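[09:14] KT: can someone run the structure on this one? pasting the chain below
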Amino acid sequence: MTAQTMNVPAYAAPAAGAPLARTTIERRPVGASDVLIDVKYAGICHSDIHQARDGWGEGIFPMVPGHEIAGVVAEVGADVTRFNVGDRVGVGCMVDSCRECENCKAGLEQYCAQGNIQTYNALDKEGRPTYGGYSTRIVVDEAFTLRIPDGLSLDVAAPLLCAGITTYSPLAHWNAGPGKKVAVVGLGGLGHMAVKIAHAMGAEVTVLSQSLRKKDDGLRLGADHYYSTSDDATFEQLAGSLDLVVSTVSAPLPLDKYLGLLKTDGAFVNVGAPEEPVSLNLFSLILGRRSLAGSGIGGIQETQEMLDFCAEHGLGAEIELISADQINEAYERVLASDVRYRFVIDAGTI
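[09:31] RB: done, C-alpha cells below
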C-alpha cells in the first residue's frame, strides 16, 4: 500500500466564481480498504458549476469538482476483495457515509441520516477536504467504488455516475415501464439519459423542452413525442395524460402548469435543483391526488444496477470530449445549453 500522501495534478477553482486553473492537490495514502484509481475521464455536471460558484451555499476552496469519474485501478489496499489492479471502475457523487443508519443499511447511502460524504466540496471522516475527478488520481474506499461493465467504454460511462443514476433512480422507484407514460423536462445532460433509460425500460416517453430545436435528437434517443413548453397548447393537449414527469432542469418552473399534466396519482419528480425557491398552489396536488417529489442519486447497489442496465442496453452518454484547458469554456457553454449532451474531460490532458 502507498504509505505516503500523493501530490497529483488537478484543476481547481481557487475561490467562488474564479476560473478553474491547473494546480497540485494532496491525496491521502492508500489504506487497507482503499482503491487508488488512475482517472481516465471526468464528466462535467451542472452541479459542478453551481458549487464552484457558491450557487448552493458556501463552498470549500480550493475546490476540485467532478463526480462523474471513470478510470482504472492502479493499486488496492491489503483488505480489498472486490477489485484488482487493472479493473475498470467508476466513482460517483459520494465517497463515504456513516454505514450504520437505517438508510445506509438499506442501501440508501445517498440519504444517509448523518449526511453522506460527497466526492468533492466536503470533509472526510478525518476532517480533510475531498477533491473530485478533475484530477489524474483519486483514492476511494472500495465500498464506494463501482465496476464499469466491459460493454461500456470509459468515456461514455463517466457521465452515468451522476446523470445516469440521477435519472435511473426515480424512473425505477416510480415504476417507469410498459404501459406508463413518462415525460422528461429538459433534454440536457440529465434529460438525454432519462430519455434513453425510460425508453429502455419500456415506457412511452415524451420530451418537454423550451423549443423544438432538439426534437430530432430526442426522437433518435428514444422519445415517442416531443413538445415545446413555450407553447401553451402543449399544456392543454397533454393535460391529465401523464403518469410520471421527471424534471431535469435547474431553473424554477411554473409547477401548477406542469402538475396539471399528471393523471390522478401521477408524480412530478425533481432531479434538477434550482438555486431559487419555487412556489405552487396546493390545489394542484389535492385535486388529483398528485405527488410533488424530489430524488437524489442512487445508493451504491442501485448505481451498479444502473451501470449493468446501461451496458445491457448499450446506453452510454452522448458526449463531447474536451481537454482540461477547455473546462472554463465548457462551463459557459453548459450555462448557454450549448452541449449535446455532456462534456467529458480527458484526464490525460490535466
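[09:33] KT: thanks! The chain has a mean pLDDT of 96.
[09:34] RB: yep, looked fine to me
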